[in-house]
Design brief:
The complex is a heterodimer of chains A (about 260) and B (about 290). Chain A is of the alpha/beta class and about 260 residues long. Chain A contains 10 helices and 10 strands. In chain A, about 40% of the residues lie in helices and about 25% in strands. In chain B, strands 1-2 form a two-stranded antiparallel ribbon. In chain B, α1 runs antiparallel to α8. Classes of the chains: A alpha/beta (about 260), B mainly alpha (about 290). Chain B: Pfam families: BPD_transp_2.
Chain lengths: ~260, ~290
Amino acid sequence: MSDSPSALLELREVTVRFDGLVALDTVSLAAPRGRVTGVIGPNGAGKTTLFNVVCGFVRPRSGEVRWRGRALARHRPHDLARLGIARTLQGLGLFPGLTVLENVMVGADRHARTGFLSGLLAAPRADRDEAALRERAMARLDELGVAGEAARRPGELPYGAQKRVALARALAAEPDLLLLDEPAAGLSVGEIEELAALIGGLRGGPAVVLVEHHMDLVMGVCDQVVVLDFGRVIAAGAPGEVRDDPAVLTAYLGEEVRGA
Amino acid sequence: MVRFVNLTLAGITSGAVFAAVALALVLIWRATRIVNFAQGGMLMFTTFLAWSVIDHGGSYWLALGTALASGLVLGAVLERVVVRPVESKPPLNAVIVTLGLYVLLQAAAGMIWGDTPHSYPPAFTIRGLSVAGERLLLSPFDLFVIGAVAAVMVALTLLFVRTDLGLRLRAAAFAPEIARLQGVRVGRMLTLGWALAALVGSLAGVLVAPSVFVGPAQFDAMLVFGFTAAVIGGLDSPAGAVVGGLLLGCALSYVSGYVSSDLVTFGALAALITVLMVRPNGLFAASAGRRV
């Protein structure tokens, strides 16, 4: 995975330590626009830490995160929407007290931002913004096939449908980078196939980074795959190459081979 | 029958004020899970400011504007400076801080304006309207009280339900961490929530001032009644706060009219205990789920 000029997101030799534990060790990766980059690895390999670094929850000890060719330092989670980065969470991360439509509208909000006081004072304008916001959120729900549930609370929906709502919210921000944190967790085989089709349909749009355990999903939808083990990149490349890499086989299957 | 109608009308008027105080408490509870015991002190302080304006020859409306504006600022400043540091701490810290603020505001008001209660003029006459020869316990000023509270309720509902700012306010209240990831400036939303709550509280203070007079301790009962109304409504529900306020207002009016006016405070506490025993989550609680 060489430096690509079109890489939107780039990590350069990022190192993160927690109390002596090396969570990420000189990790580099590049996520180009329009392509799906998979990050896989055993539990504890540093996949979620990697997302947390990009989101500004965790500051790297060394190395840098570059976004659109510029180093990102000191960004905070609330800056992400403005930067054009959307993230789905492990689990759902939906607002329980808001309707499905309102959940997605919060995600779409960066485009219809009325200011702090102007929102209070200029009610008519805010009202128009709100209508545009509602329309765009509805369109996303429609694309993901859950428009019929717009008026319901997330808690009333089956898990798979809630996942779609979460994805709709991330897409409603029209991000340039979409971070998907284990989107297949808790889904049935059929729902994972639908998810794969959805992610595949994003190709050519935003840069997508997918952290996932589910090997078939990663191999099926990703254009390139980075394999982490104990915080280090042990392999990177096209899914076919990575699958047969001996280091990857050892990392994933080593325990079983030893145990057998 | 006329007596019942009159007591009901009087109950709705005082209930509207209770509802406003309850709403101020509910707005803050929803956003920060803090019961703002300082609310009584805050609305006392802003009402004193309004009284000063009138005392210096300002008009009723200038005084009302002063109270509302100073409420907005006071709420925002207190959240930012005093409450923000305890927001992520155990709940007891916030209880102590808001109680301390209450004592502080009361003492400060006593030092600035003295302990003697001052009279406060109503906006319109408090002579009851006559309908078919019967003098009603409903004056033009009472109508103004009900109308002002209703207008604020409608405006707040529109803000929360119909604007994207309101959506962000609600998102920040429901799940601050998730809201942050969606680009919501949660800290600002909390400040705005406190400012709006204090605005509603300061309106209640000015509206009730003609009947309770303006003094450092004159508004203590308002906090008790407002809190009772909020709890009746379930603390979490703005609509519940309004209904709770009106129910409490009417109940207390009946107690005062049919039993004895000495029993009004007793009646409020009895209502509070009854509601807490029968429906611990309030009449309007959505679910038994608790945020831990």
